[in-house]
Amino acid sequence: MSTRHDRNFASWDGGGDDPPLFDVRLDPISKGWKVGTWSDTAKFFKRINCYYANFTIVRGGTEDAVDMTGSQDNLLSHFRIDMAGDQYVMTLKGGSCRNTFKDWTIGIPPKTVDIEIGNWSSSNFDRSIGNHFINWKHLNGAPVTYCYRFGCKPTFKDTLTKHLWVRSIGITVYWWSKYFWHVVLNRPDN
Which residues contact 88 (CB under 8 A, 6 or more apart)? Predict the structure, then answer.
């Protein structure tokens, strides 16, 4: 098992109760970043009770367009993802709870799955529960795909979805194997 640190284009870390953030355009390529050199385009880490609206993400990273870890009670509204991350539009993990994601539009989809919830995070082992997705859509009319670690099931409203069961089983097995490795055996990643 190996560890590598993400290189994110934009990050919002720690704290909370910040003023609302509106009309943000994240375009790494226009800022001179080369394709494949960043993991996540937007990283939200330990954000509490924040409001983000009218975001445009021109291109996701090698992992995600949006990565949320340990963030709770946030509202992310009116996001447009022109081109998703290589793996996901969004991943929620590390106790990201009670967040609402409303009115999201996806242009070019990711290779793996649109939304992944509850995968491994070495910073927090809590479940990512109570997350709500409202009015998500693909421009091509395809269903929004999602998977989750068992115990982290999200809710969807006004969204055509497809649950990827086999991938959910895989995430659950992977999470428990990482937990056993790190917590029970007290082994670090190499």
Answer: 60, 63, 64, 65, 110, 112, 113, 114, 115, 116
Own/partner long-range contacts of 30-33 (Cβ < 8 Å, ≥24 apart): 30/58, 33/9
Distance from C-alpha of 173 to C-alpha of 169, rounded to nearest angstrom: 6
User: For the chain, which residues make up each domain, given as ranges?
Assistant: 8-184
Please give the span between the terminal C-alpha atoms of the chain, in angstroms, as a whole number. 6
The mean pLDDT of 118-140, rounded to a whole number, is 94
At which residue do the structure tokens 């479940």 appear?
Answer: 127
Region 150-171 average pLDDT? 96
* Architecture (CATH level 2) of domain 8-184: 3 Solenoid (2.160)
